[in-house]
Every structure is written in C-alpha cells, then in structure tokens.
Design a protein that fits this description.
18 helices, binds tryptophan, Amino acid/polyamine transporter I, mainly alpha
Length: 451
C-alpha cells in the first residue's frame, strides 16, 4: 500500500478546511437566517454558537482524526479498539455521502445557471426568467444532466488524491473565491437603494431571539463548519504532526464567518435595491437573483451579464470545494478499510451518490408526490442530516474525545506534545468535555420542545 498522504503546508490545510466549510450554506442559508432571526442580534448568537459550541467539536474531530491517522471508522477503531465506537465512525461515513447526493443536485443547478448566464439568458430584452426556476427543477433531464456534470467534476478532483487533487484545487480556488465575492460586494453596495439591504443584515432586533433562533444558529454553525459527519476528522487525519490544530480550527471558523458575512453583503443589498422581498432557501439565490441581473441589465447589459457569470461561478466553486470534502470521507474509508484502489472507491461513492441524487432531483418533478414523513425525498434527506445526524455526530465526537480518549492523548494532540497552546488546553478541554455536549443537548431538546 502507498503511504498515507498529508497536506503539504499550513496554508494547504486551511484552504482545504475552509473550502469544505465555505459552501452553499454560507451563500444562501446564512444571509437569509440573519435577516429572519434578528439581524445583528442573530450574528451575536451565531458567534457564540460558533466559538463555544461548534469550535470545540471542530477541535474534537481534529484531535480524533490526527491521533487516529485514519478514516473515521479506522480512527475510532484504533483509539477505542473493540468498542462500539467504530460504528459511530461508520455512521459518519454514511451521512456525508447522503449529503453529497442532494448537495450535488444543488451544485448541478449552479452549473446550469452558470451556462445560462454565459449564454446571456438572464439579461437583455428577451431574458426568460419568469417561472424558470420552478420549471427547471421540476423537469426530468436538465437537472439530472447538470447534477451528473457536477458530481463528475467532484469525482475528478477527488480522484487526483489528497495532494494533487484536493490540495491543488482548493489552494487555487479559495483565494479566487474571496476575490470574486469581494467584487460582488462592491458592485452590490454601489447600487442605489442598497441601504435597506444593509439595514436588513445589521439592524439588531432582540425580540426575534428565541430558542428556535438559538437552535437555528447552532444548526447553521454545524452545517457551515462541516461538523458532525467526519469531514473535518478525515481532513485532520491528513494534517502533519507538527501543524497546529488550534490555528487551523480558528482560521477555518474565521474565514467561514467572514465569507458568510461577505455573501450577505453581496446578496441582500442587491435584493433590496431591486425592490424584491428576500426569498428563502435556494430560492433566494436561484429565483431572486436572475431577476436582479435582468433588471439591472436594462442599463448596461454586458455588466449585468458579467456580474451574473461571476455570481454563479462563485456558487459553483464554493459548492465544489465543499462537495469534495464530503466525498473524501467515504473514499478514505473504502480505500483504507476495504483496501480498494482509490479509483474504485471514488467510482462506488460517485455512483451511489449519483443515483440517490437523481432520485432527489426527481423529487421536485415526477416524484414530487412520493413523501417520506411529509417531505419529498430531497427535503427529507436534508432534514434528516441537518437536524439529526449532524448534532448527534457532533455530540458523540465530543463525548468520545472528552470522555473516551485519555486526557494525556488529547493533551498531546492539542499541544503538539506540550510545545504549543499549553495555556489554552484547560479551557478547551472543559468546552469539549462538558460545555459542548451539554450545550448541544440543551439546544437540541429545547428546539424539539418548542417546535
Ligand atoms: N459546510 C458546507 C457548506 O456550508 C457544506 C458541507 C461540507 C457539509 N461538508 C459537510 C455540511 C459536511 C455538513 C457536513 O455549504
């Protein structure tokens, strides 16, 4: 067997982890949630959720992954041999593959929209926007073809391996992504009437803070930081022993938050400038924005076409770097535990996620009437993962790191053998051991009770 690959540098680790974290969740979920749950007030709650609940889980996953030096199943098996914990490892192999399958459908939408904007379909006098989104996602072939293209791209990158595939791709794309979104922010803020959008994002409204808002903030922090399903664990298993886990965690969380806020300032001012009520969910990006591009396009058509292209390229790149991290979890498992060659592992995961993704895609069209617990397949899988699997996984990772692993091992990993971050160990260990698991439980149960 070839030796295990590692990320080449600290920059590479941070770009790969930030690439996983920054994705569709930042672009459509965050801006909308901020507006919905009280603007700046929500951002404060989100910050707290990120730094005292999500970040400890991030550290727990990092510690388990780098200590175990294996895929999720293998790491758990190594660190707690002969116990049932490896089944948690296996559970967390399954969830990212499920997430990948419906995430890839939305990734496919961004492929389609990029093509449309390249063809100037959203701009100019004969733009065809009205009802386009609904028509597109409920049709049979186009979204499936787009989904296929997207997942093939993901498979191609993951096939290249940790260094040549994931590292190279994220090292190039993440800086580009930041440049793209900053261009969009400037454009958006320059629009007449942008002020209302800014107010929507920053005006604190403390009356909207509720148990629901706290649960929403926590769920968003989980999803946005790719926690609870072994993505970070797997990436951390490729971090070299002399790298600092604290730095990569804080840098990832900070860039994720920064990007989410930038995305908010890129989208909301434009939405309000166009006089449109902010939509929810994917509709915000895929339904609302083409209208905006079109409306602006009457003045300077080429400019709005260019902005549309930049916009959907941003979404596509962000989605790609996240999707590869989901695929890598399963690929690492199959190649390390089942000893499959990498290409085979990639093939199996791709085919599985592709087929489930097709069903998800059809659940907006011909299969719309097939309901599981009142949801179509797409929404069912999303709710299953976001509301249940991620918090459960995150909870169990902190319990494993805080209670099952020996304190000496955790100390050794977190401080690199007692050479770094020594003063921070105690508070972080406290957060991992008590605060995070209890906090997750409290938020989770109160959301269940109040919903
Ligand atoms: N964090 C990504 C986003 O914000 C999505 C993502 C990647 C993810 N890997 C994950 C979500 C693992 C949950 C679990 O879009």
């Amino acid at each position: 067997m070839t030796p295990r690959e590692n990320f080449g540098s600290r920059f590479a680790v941070i770009m790969a982890m930030a690439g996983s974290a920054i994705g569709l969740g930042n672009i459509w979920r965050f801006p909308y949630m901020v507006g919905e749950y009280g603007g700046a007030a929500f951002i404060v709650v989100y910050l707290v959720a990120c730094f005292v609940l999500a970040l400890p889980i991030f550290f727990a996953e990092s510690i388990i992954g780098r200590r175990g030096r294996a895929d999720t199943f293998g790491s758990m098996q190594k660190l707690a041999p002969g116990t049932g914990w490896r089944w948690l490892g296996l559970l967390t192999v399954l969830s990212p593959i499920i997430i990948l399958s419906y995430y890839s459908v939305v990734g496919g939408w961004s492929v389609e929209y990029l093509f449309k904007s390249l063809a100037f379909d959203f701009t100019g006098p004969d733009a065809r926007i009205d009802g386009f989104f609904g028509h597109f996602i409920s049709s049979v072939w186009e979204p499936i073809i787009a989904h296929t293209l997207f997942i093939a791209l993901v498979a191609g990158i993951v096939l290249g391996g940790v260094k040549k595939g994931i590292e190279t791709f994220t090292k190039i794309c993440m800086p580009v992504l930041f440049v793209l979104v900053i261009v969009l922010v400037f454009y958006s803020l320059s629009l007449p009437g942008a002020g209302k959008g800014i107010a929507y994002l920053v005006k604190p409204d403390f009356s909207k803070l509720s148990a629901q808002a706290a649960a929403a903030a926590l769920g968003q922090a989980f999803f946005s930081l790719s926690l609870g399903v072994g993505t970070i664990l797997t990436y951390a298993s490729y971090i070299r022993a002399d790298e600092n886990i604290l730095t990569s965690g804080v840098a990832t969380a900070a860039s994720d938050l920064f990007f989410a806020i930038l995305a908010g300032f890129a989208i909301m001012p434009a939405v309000f400038a166009a006089g449109i009520a902010p939509g929810t969910g994917p509709g915000l990006v895929f339904e609302t924005l083409p209208f905006i591009f079109n409306r602006m396009g009457t003045a300077i058509p080429w400019l709005s076409a260019l902005v549309a292209i930049i916009f959907f390229l941003t979404i596509l790149v962000a989605a790609l770097t996240s999707a590869i991290s989901m695929m890598e979890v399963g690929v690492a498992y199959l190649s390390e535990e089942k000893k499959l060659p990498r290409w085979r592992a990639v093939l199996y995961i791709t085919v599985f996620a592709w087929v489930v993704g097709i069903l998800c895609s059809l659940s907006f069209g011909p299969l719309a009437n097939v309901h599981i617990l009142g949801n179509n397949l797409f929404d069912f899988l999303d709710k299953l993962c976001s509301n249940w699997m991620l918090p459960l996984g995150g909870f169990l990772f902190t319990v494993f790191c805080g209670w099952k692993m020996s304190k000496a091992d955790v100390y050794d990993e977190f401080t690199n053998g007692g050479t770094k971050n020594r003063n921070l160990f105690r508070p972080v260990y406290f957060l991992i051991r008590y605060f995070a698991p209890i906090g997750i439980l409290v938020v989770f149960v109160s959301a269940l009770l109040f919903s």
